[in-house]
Amino acid sequence: MNRGDTGPYLPILDLMPELLVIDNLHASVAGTEILKGVNLTVEAGETHAVMGPNGSGKSTLANILLGNPVYTVTEGTITYKGEDITEATPDVRGRAGMFLGFQYPEEIPGVSVVNFLRTALSSRTGVDYTLLELRLKVVDAMRELDMDPAFADRYLNEGFSGGERKRNEVLQMAVLEPDLAVLDETDSGLDIDALKIVADGVGRLRNDDRGFVIITHYQRMLDYITPDVVHVFLDGKIVASGGPDLADQIEDAGYDSYRNEAATT
After folding, report:
1. What share of the chain has pLDDT > 90, as a percent?
2. What is d(CA 178, CA 163) in angstroms, rounded to the nearest whole number?
3. Nearest to 201 by CA among 142, 150, 114, 157
4. Sheet (strand 83-84) strand order
5. How many Å from the N-terminal Cα to the C-terminal Cα in the chain?
6. Domain boundaries, the chain
7. What does the pLDDT look like over 186-245, one tens digit per residue?
8. What is the residue-averaged pLDDT of the chain?
9. Contact, 184 vs 59, CB < 8 A?
């Protein structure tokens, strides 16, 4: 509205939809129900930590968010940037800016890190990057992440240590620039030095436009990445949510104090 207008001033409302909305999500694998009514909303710029014991369904949630066809959604919806993607295929989700950091990244012998990233980024953006263009982009990302440039020419995850595999996942995020990154137990199998390196890389990629869902079993990852919201995940659903101090409470008291709540919700 111009300053000369005589009508009342109306503030411009932020009508951008939430980045991710999971509504009453139920899912199964091979006829066995794993997710039992998950509700979760992630705004742009937020980092959410989903904590729970082994077997609670956390990794199932990560896989379903990225469209793994092994799992079947039986009820509920997944909305991303205002669009229902419940039935969308993994490639559609990836091109839309979703990223999954695997708990156990696979080896791909014969495919270099830089060639893998060239193919992935071209699919993500629709731009056919030359190898030189992509290499320059990868080198810039590696410099930001304090990584050895020689890493780019190694075969993807072949002979990589656990820490190198996870750093490679962070490199992929830096190059692909997803809007939503789901990290499935990124801290699994890492020693303290590797954990610090990975956490530092994730910290550098956090910004006001990108959302993170960090799925973890232990609190130690959150010593280095402070989430905005922490969720307790038990028996296929979120049973409690709170601020970063909730992770400390879980570390001190364990998950047993939440099991009765899980049984009644």
Report:
1. 51
2. 21
3. 142
4. 32-42, 20-29, 72-80, 83-84
5. 48
6. 20-264
7. 777 777 877 887 788 888 889 999 999 999 887 888 888 899 999 999 999 999 999 999
8. 87
9. yes
What's the pTM? 0.86
SS3 210: coil
User: In the CATH hierarchy, which top-level class contains the domain 20-264?
Assistant: alpha beta
Strand segments, DSSP code E, in the chain are 20-29, 32-42, 47-51, 72-80, 83-84, 98-101, 108-112, 155-156, 180-184, 211-216, 229-234, 237-242
User: Amino acid letter at 102?
Assistant: F
Strand partners, 231: 50, 241
**H-assigned helices in 177-217:** 192-205
Q: CA neighbours within 13 Å on the CB side: how many for 128?
A: 0
Residue identified by tokens 């012998």 is 109
Rounded distance, CA 49 to CA 248, Å? Answer: 12
Q: CB atoms < 10 A from the CB of 76, how many?
A: 16
The Cα 203–Cα 170 span in angstroms is: 10
- The whole-angstrom separation of Cα 43 and Cα 20 is 7
Rounded to whole angstroms, the Cα distance separating 24 from 40 reads 9
CB atoms within 10 A of CB 134: 21
The 3-state DSSP class for residue 257 equals: helix
Q: Which of 41, 38, 50, 48 is nearest to 20 (CA)?
A: 41
